[in-house]
Amino acid sequence: MNIDNLRKVSIADPYYHGLGSIRIKLDGHETINFYSKKHIPIISKYIHTHQAELHCEKLHGSYENILYDWEISKEESDWCMEEIECKEGTNPILIHENVIPIVKSREIFTDKIVHSYSGFHDLKLITDNVITKMKYNFDKFTPKAKIIRNKDDKYICGLSQRGKATDNWEIIKEILNEI
């Protein structure tokens, strides 16, 4: 994998996603996702679902996939559940004011993984850099995703700060030079 080939197969400028990745769009509802502890900050770190089922293949590195369950709290909690559209300029809609996230399981992403569109999860990088190829399965789709957010953290849409294409290409180049 090199930067020149990635530029050729990309069908749009790479963009930053607030969950901590830079994505390159490919044909066929696919993306290549670059994660880096050093180069890509996380600005919207939430336990979340997806709008579509995601089939991921490891190209480099590894992360821990943390699956969550949740329950409604009768008492004040630090967490709320919201529905989001994953579109720039939209605001979340409160579903439950007080919830408690519960770790259901943890798995190490080593080869391939499917992220459900309805199950809550989060990820934690194990290696400094992770590169995945992701295919969106729109047969399993919902127009809105859900997040479990710590109430102390202001909501920031993951797509609100896509970054400049030239900067994103430079970060991808740096990551490729490090692996």
Quick structural summary:
This protein has a single domain, classed as Jelly Rolls (Sandwich).
Radius of gyration: 16 Å
Count up the helices. 2
The fraction of residues assigned to DSSP E strands is over 45%
Structural class estimated from helices and strands: mainly beta
Q: Please indicate the count of domains.
A: 1
Number of strands: 12
CATH architecture: Sandwich
pLDDT averaged residue by residue: 93
- CATH topology, anyone? Jelly Rolls
CATH class: Mainly Beta
Mass-distribution shape: globular
Question: End-to-end span in angstroms?
Answer: 10 Å
Order of strands in the sheet with most strands: 1-2-3-11-5-9
Helical percent range? 10-25%
Low-confidence stretches: none
* Main beta sheet: 6 strands, antiparallel
Question: How would you characterize this protein structure?
Answer:
This protein has 2 helices and 12 strands. With 179 residues, it is mainly beta. The protein has one domain (3-178): Jelly Rolls. The protein has helices at 3-9, 165-178; strands spanning 15-17, 21-26, 30-36, 47-48, 52-60, 63-72, 79-84, 93-109, 112-115, 120-125, 129-141, 145-150. A 6-stranded antiparallel beta sheet has the order 1-2-3-11-5-9. A 6-stranded antiparallel beta sheet has the order 4-12-7-8-6-10, with no helix packed on it.
